[in-house]
TrEMBL record:
Main location: nucleus
Keywords of the record: DNA damage, DNA recombination, DNA repair, DNA replication, DNA-binding, Metal-binding, Nucleus, Zinc, Zinc-finger
Subcellular locations according to the entry: Nucleus
Organism, scientific name: Chloropicon laureae
Name of the protein in its database record: Replication protein A subunit
Highest taxon in the source lineage: Eukaryota
Length: 777
C-alpha cells in the first residue's frame, strides 16, 4: 500500500513526452514550434586553431525518440553543459533555434532551451543524416553516368556515400539538379568541419579522424569550380521585397516532417519528381560498414526546396541579431542605429588607420556593435545616422570585446568595403524597432562588477541632491547632481549626473521628489565607478529616461508602490551591511560543509527546499494544555487511561504542572528537507507543522492510522518552503550530533525568490564571486 501511495503522490517532476517527428521538422527548417527533445550526447568541439579568441563549443545530439540530429549549442548555453543542465538524458524544450545550411551542410543551432528534467535515453534513435534507403548496398551507390562531371572528383573517395541512382536522375540535367549536386559535393566534403566563411574560425572534432583530414583537401580542391547555379543562388541574390525573418525554410510548412518520414520509410525511389518537395540523398545503410563508423556518421542527406518560391526568387533573409553567429554565412539584419562614435585614429604594431563603431538594435531586442576600419570607416561613417534603420549584410562576426562592449550580443560585426548598408524607409515594420535597447542589471549585481563597466540600470529615484558646480581639471566648469536609485534587488546606488543630465533631467527629478513622487528612471550606458562603494555616473553616450514606457519600469513602479518603498529593507552598495536582519541563505550541504552548529552555540540559517519525506511516527505528541506563567505549558503528557463516566475523553499527567491535563496535540514532525545540494532530517514543531500538514495536529490525530493518515502525509510532500533553521549540537547518551529544527517556515514567494535569484545570476554572469552572492539571496 505504501508503494501505491508513493506512486500516486503529486508534484514529482516528470519530464514530458518527446515531440513526435521533431527531428525531421527541425531539419526542414520549421521554427514555429517548441519541440521537446532528449539530449543523447554532448560533445566538446575544439577550435582547430587556438588563440585567445577561441571559444568553447558544444555539439549535442537531439532525439525525438526515433531520429536524432546533431545541433550546435549557442555560446550562451555553454554554461548549461558545464553545470549539468544539458547532458545525455536531459529532456529539453527548444524555445529558440535555427536550422541553417552552412556550406551545404545542415546545422541546427540551439539558441535557447528549457531543461525539463532527465531520464534514460528513449528508444534507439538513428541519426537523421544517416537515414538512407533501407538495403541499398554501398556498391549500388555509384553515381550514374548522367550525374554530371564535376561531381566525380568528390565522389571517388567516398563512393559509399553516394545516393542511389534513382534519386539523382530526376535532377541531373536541370538547374535544380546542378544545384543539388553541387550541394552534395559540399556535403560530401564538408563533413565534421564547420568552417566559417573566411576560414579563420573553424572547429574540428576534439579528435579529428584520418578521414576528416583526408576530406578537407577534397573540399578545398582548387580545381573544382562551383557550377554557376550555385553561385547565382547563394551569392548573387539580388535583394527583393524584404520578407522579415522568413528564411525560406518556413515556407516548407508543417507537412514537411511527414513527407520526409514517408521517404525514409520506403517510398523513397518511387517518387522521382520530388513531388513532396524534398529529395533526400540517401547514404549508405546505417550499419553497412563495420569498419568505418566515422564516415557513416556523416552521411549527408540533401533537401532541395521545390515549394512555391524557388530559390532564385528567395527574399532577402533578414535574421534576428540574436541569431547571428559564425556558422551563419549569409545574413541580413534590419536594425536601428542607436549610437555612433566619432572617427578615431589608432596605431599599433600592425599599422595605423581610422575606426568608428556604431550600435544597432532590432525589432526583437537584439543589439550588436558594428566596427569599421580604414576604407570601410571612410565609406560607412557618412552613411550612418543615429536613429535611422538600415539593412546590413556581409560583415564578419568576431567575438565581442566585453570589456568595452555592454551590448547583449556575444559578437561584433566588422565591416568590410564589400559590406552593404542600405537605409530603410520608416514604415509600419521599421517603426517597431526600438530606438533604445536596455540591458538592465540589478543594482545589487553592480557591486561585484568591474569599475569602468558600462551598464544599464532601471530604478526608482529615492532622493535627489541639489545641483553643484564643479571645476574640471582644465579649469572649465560643469554641473553635477547626485540621485539615489533603488530597484527590486533591494540595492541602492548613487547615480551622478553631469552637465545637461544635472541641469535638465536632474531638475525634473528634483521637482518630482519634492512633491513626494518617486519617478522611475531608466539609464542607458552609465559608467560604474567606485567612491565609498560602487557608484554610477553619466557619460557622453548615456541616455536617461524618466518614467519610461517600459515593462521593467512598470514592474518597478508597482513593486515600489506596493512593498518596495521605504518599508522594505534597502541595501546601499559598498557599505558592507548586506542582509543584516535576514539569516544567511545557505544550501543544505553547507550545514555540514561549514560545520554549522559546532561552535558551542546554535547557528541560524535560511534554506529554500522541499519536503521530501515525512516519517509517519512520531507525528505529534499530547501536550499539556494548562496555563503556567502566563503561557500554555505544552510539555508532553503521560497519557492516562480513559476513566469511566468521563465522557470518554482521555487525560494525561503533566510532570511539570503536577496535574492532570486534557491533551492538546502538537506536531513533532521528522521531515526530510531537501534542496539541490542535499537533504537532511529536520524537526518541525507546532505551528510550522500545521503549515506543512495543512491542518491542526488534533485533526490529524483523529484520522485513523494507515492509508487514511498516509494520504495526508503524502499530500504534504514536495511543497517548497523557505525555512529558518536552528542548527545546534545536542548530546544524547554522551554522543553529540548536530540537530536542525525549523524555527520559521514560509511557503516560497516565487516572485521574490526569482528577483533575488536573477540578481545573483547577474552577479555570476558579470564575473562576480559566487561565495559572496550566496549569503545574500
Ligand atoms: Zn503542564
Amino acid at each position: 500500500e505504501r508503494l501505491g501511495a508513493t506512486e500516486a503522490r503529486p508534484g514529482k517532476m516528470t519530464a514530458p513526452a518527446l515531440t513526435l517527428n521533431a527531428t525531421s521538422a527541425l531539419w526542414n527548417g520549421n521554427t514555429d514550434f517548441k519541440p521537446v527533445m532528449q539530449c543523447t550526447e554532448v560533445k566538446a568541439l575544439q577550435p582547430s586553431s587556438g588563440g585567445a579568441n577561441a571559444q568553447e563549443r558544444y555539439r549535442i545530439s537531439l532525439s525525438d525518440g526515433d531520429l536524432f540530429t546533431h545541433a550546435m549549442l549557442a555560446t550562451q548555453l555553454v554554461d548549461r553543459v558545464k553545470d549539468g543542465r544539458i547532458q545525455p538524458g536531459s529532456v529539453l524544450r527548444l524555445t529558440e533555434f535555427l536550422c541553417n545550411v552552412v556550406h551545404g551542410r545542415k546545422i541546427v543551432i540551439v539558441l535557447n532551451c528549457d531543461a525539463l528534467g532527465s531520464r534514460a535515453i528513449q528508444g534507439a534513435p538513428q541519426n537523421i543524416q544517416s537515414k538512407g534507403p533501407a538495403g541499398a548496398p554501398p556498391q549500388a551507390a555509384q553515381a550514374p553516368a548522367g550525374a554530371g562531371q564535376h561531381q566525380q572528383p568528390y565522389q571517388q573517395p567516398y563512393q559509399q556515400q553516394q545516393p542511389p541512382p534513382q534519386h539523382q536522375q530526376p535532377y541531373s540535367a536541370g538547374g535544380y539538379g546542378a544545384n543539388m549536386q553541387q550541394q552534395q559535393q559540399r556535403l560530401s566534403g564538408g563533413k565534421e568541419n564547420i568552417q566559417q566563411q573566411g576560414g579563420n574560425n573553424y572547429y574540428n572534432e576534439t579528435k579529428p579522424s584520418m578521414q576528416q583530414q583526408q576530406q578537407q583537401p577534397n573540399y578545398q580542391n582548387p580545381h573544382q569550380p562551383p557550377p554557376p547555379s550555385y553561385q547565382q543562388q547563394q551569392y548573387q541574390q539580388p535583394p527583393q521585397q524584404p520578407n522579415p525573418y522568413n528564411n525560406g525554410h518556413h515556407q516548407q510548412g508543417r507537412q514537411a516532417p511527414y513527407q520526409q518520414q514517408q521517404q525514409q520509410r520506403g517510398s523513397y525511389g518511387g517518387n522521382p519528381g520530388g513531388v513532396g518537395g524534398y529529395q533526400q540523398q540517401g547514404g549508405a545503410p546505417q550499419y553497412g560498414h563495420g569498419g568505418n563508423q566515422h564516415q557513416q556518421q556523416h552521411q549527408q542527406p540533401n533537401y532541395v526546396q521545390r515549394g512555391p518560391i524557388s530559390r532564385n526568387e528567395a527574399p532577402v533573409r533578414i535574421v534576428p541579431i540574436k541569431s547571428l553567429n559564425p556558422y551563419l554565412n549569409r545574413w541580413t539584419i534590419q536594425a536601428r542605429a542607436t549610437n555612433k562614435s566619432d572617427i578615431r585614429r589608432w596605431q599599433n604594431a600592425k599599422g595605423e588607420g581610422t575606426v568608428f563603431n556604431f550600435d544597432v538594435c532590432d525589432v526583437e531586442g537584439g543589439e550588436i556593435r558594428i566596427c569599421a576600419f580604414k576604407e570601410a570607416c571612410e565609406k560607412f561613417f557618412p552613411v550612418i545616422e543615429v536613429g535611422k534603420v538600415y539593412m546590413i549584410s556581409k560583415g564578419s562576426l568576431r567575438p565581442a570585446r566585453k570589456q568595452y562592449n555592454p551590448l547583449n550580443s556575444d559578437f561584433e560585426i566588422y565591416l568590410e568595403t564589400s559590406s552593404t548598408i542600405e537605409p530603410c524607409v520608416e514604415d509600419e515594420r521599421t517603426s517597431s524597432i526600438p530606438s533604445i535597447n536596455f540591458n538592465f542589471k540589478p543594482v545589487m549585481a553592480l557591486e561585484t562588477m568591474n569599475t569602468g563597466s558600462i551598464v544599464d540600470v532601471v530604478g526608482v529615484v529615492l532622493t535627489v541632491d541639489g545641483i553643484a558646480t564643479i571645476q574640471r581639471r582644465d579649469g572649465t566648469e560643469t554641473q553635477k547632481r547626485s540621485l539615489s536609485v533603488k530597484d527590486d534587488s533591494n540595492g541602492v546606488i548613487e547615480l551622478t549626473c553631469w552637465g545637461n543630465f544635472a541641469t535638465n533631467v536632474g531638475q525634473e527629478l528634483e521637482d518630482a521628489c519634492a512633491k513626494g513622487e518617486h519617478p522611475v528612471v531608466a539609464v542607458k550606458s552609465a559608467r560604474l565607478g567606485e567612491y565609498n562603494g560602487k557608484t554610477l555616473g553619466t557619460i557622453s553616450s548615456t541616455q536617461l529616461l524618466v518614467n519610461p514606457d517600459l515593462p521593467e519600469a512598470g514592474r518597478l513602479r508597482h513593486w515600489f508602490d506596493q512593498a518596495g518603498g521605504a518599508q522594505s529593507q534597502a541595501t546601499a552598495l559598498g557599505q558592507g551591511s548586506m542582509g543584516g536582519r535576514r539569516d544567511r541563505r545557505v544550501q543544505m550541504e553547507q550545514i555540514m560543509e561549514e560545520g554549522l552548529g559546532q561552535g558551542g552555540k546554535p547557528d541560524y540559517v535560511e534554506c529554500r527546499g522541499a519536503v521530501e519525506f515525512i516519517k509517519d511516527n512520531p507525528l505529534f505528541y499530547p501536550a499539556c494544555s494548562l496555563q503556567r506563567n502566563g503561557r500554555t505549558c505544552q510539555k508532553k503528557l503521560q497519557m492516562l487511561g480513559v476513566e469511566d463516566g468521563d465522557g470518554g475523553e482521555a487525560k494525561g499527567w503533566c510532570e511539570t504542572c503536577q496535574a492532570q491535563s486534557i491533551p492538546m496535540y502538537r506536531y513533532i514532525l521528522q521531515l526530510k528537507f531537501t534542496d539541490a545540494s542535499c537533504g537532511r532530517w529536520i524537526t518541525c514543531f507546532g505551528d510550522q507543522g500545521e503549515v506543512v500538514m495543512g491542518m491542526p495536529a488534533g485533526e490529524l490525530q483523529r484520522v485513523p492510522e494507515g492509508d487514511e493518515r498516509m494520504h495526508f502525509l503524502d499530500r504534504a510532500k514536495f511543497a517548497e518552503y523557505v525555512v529558518k533553521l536552528k542548527v545546534a549540537e545536542e548530546t544524547y547518551n554522551e554522543e553529540s550530533r548536530i540537530k536542525c529544527s525549523i524555527s520559521r517556515l514560509t511557503p516560497v514567494n516565487y516572485a521574490q525568490e526569482a528577483s533575488e535569484l536573477l540578481a545573483g545570476i547577474q552577479l555570476l554572469l558579470d564575473g562576480g564571486d559566487n561565495r559572496n552572492v550566496r549569503p545574500r539571496y
